[in-house]
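Format notes (please read before filing issues)

Several people have asked whether sequences and structure tokens are stored in separate files. They are not. Every record keeps both together, in the order shown below: the sequence lines, then the token lines. Line labels are part of the format and must not be stripped during preprocessing.
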Amino acid sequence: MRKPVPMRRPRRAVANAFAGLALVLAGLIPAAAAQRVDAPADLDWVLQRIVRPAPARTPFLELRGSALLKAPLRIVGEYRRPDDATLVRDVRSPYRETTTIANGEIVIQREGRGPRRFAMSRAPELAGLQSGFGALLGGDRLELERHYRVTVEGSRRQWALRLVPRDAAVAARVDEVRLRGRGSELRCIETQVAGADVQRTLLAGAVVDADGVDDTDALRALCQMAPTAVPSAR
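Then the structure lines:
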């Protein structure tokens, strides 16, 4: 039996997994207009729009900045959640790569290369991330707040859900994640990886809006919104 090949620095895998666990929500939130759009958003209201059973799939546009690039690198692909215990990240451009998280293992298959494997036990922060986003997908507020300090910002017209890991192993890898939306549409996910730049992933209407846009500030503006913070009641 082939032993898993250890990865010395799974930081990118952590960021991608975290964004992916959140990103599957994008295609699941209904497009219907929210009622009372100027009312303050709260955690229960957001969770009601996130809860959806598998299977699910959604396209994504991930933006990676670099001092060597005039514009962010665009990573285009699709996230699939065939069942409650499996997440697949399928990159289609500018390269081909499939990452599968299932059965306590992460498998990364890049075109022209052999698969790389490592156990979730080698990266306990990923297990924590998976548990936390499982709580999001399941609408389990108590479990979510057990894993994260949660802040809801803005109104139902324009809101953000900020998650700060409580677990030390997760916090060592990820400072925070913000899910940003308008009404019932989740539009962007920002993942602040410890010691690295923010990773932004556009989705839904934001992906359409990004078509033909190359300016870094303009792309950031498509993701970022500035609502007033409203701490979670618990």
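For reference, the curators noted about this record: The first helix runs from residue 11 to 23. Helices lie at 11-23, 43-50, 124-138, 141-147, 168-171, 205-209, 216-223.
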